[in-house]
From TrEMBL:
Record key words, sorted: Membrane, Transmembrane, Transmembrane helix
Name of the protein: Nose resistant to fluoxetine protein 6
UniProt xrefs under PANTHER family: NOSE RESISTANT TO FLUOXETINE PROTEIN 6-LIKE PROTEIN, O-ACYLTRANSFERASE
Signal peptide positions (record): none
Domain of life: Eukaryota
Tagged with keyword Metal-binding: no
Provenance organism: Culex pipiens
Transmembrane segments: 21-42, 54-77, 98-115, 121-148
Length: 163
């Protein structure tokens, strides 16, 4: 889906004419797909066919929803969302998010392996563990980014700079 979006952006030099109603309907569809994928399985008790559909189509549907969000921002149909996503204040967080994504399963495993007995999950415990793991993931991601990602990016810029 990402390559399709890149292909459209590269070869479609002028944005297509999209009416406000069509833009709104595409946004509603995209957001509905995303929220449906996140919150649609809230109960966690899906039948075998429903699980098969969710697992086989979920990632594709997520990518399809992101296609319109990306194209709408790129073509200027959603300036508010584009400004929000392009805000310089969240730029450092965006650089850390992938590293945090890679680190957080390790932190979750370490946390769960340190439990000596089963715990009864309650909302307070879930929230505390979530925020603890999230903060620790971003702290660790910051240091990994400083030690690995930033030097490699600097070296790549030096190696491939225009002369």
């Amino acid at each position: 889906m990402g390559m399709l979006t890149g292909y459209i952006i590269y070869f479609k030099k002028t944005p297509p004419k999209v009416s406000g109603i069509v833009n709104l309907l595409l946004w509603i569809t995209s957001v509905s797909i995303i929220f449906g994928l996140i919150f649609g399985v809230w109960d966690g008790q899906l039948s075998v066919p429903a699980t098969a559909v969710y697992v086989s189509l979920g990632h594709t549907a997520w990518g399809a929803a992101l296609i319109w969000i990306t194209l709408s921002c790129y073509w200027g149909y959603s300036p508010f969302i584009n400004n929000l996503l392009s805000y310089r204040g969240i730029h450092p967080l965006s650089r850390l998010s992938y590293c945090a994504y890679l680190v957080h399963p390790v932190i979750m495993m370490i946390t769960s392996f340190q439990l000596e007995a089963p715990i009864h999950l309650q909302h307070g415990i879930i929230i505390t563990v979530f925020f603890g793991n999230a903060v620790l993931s971003f702290i660790l991601a910051f240091f990994i980014s400083l030690l690995l990602e930033a030097p490699v990016i600097k070296l790549l810029k030096l190696a491939f700079r225009n002369k």
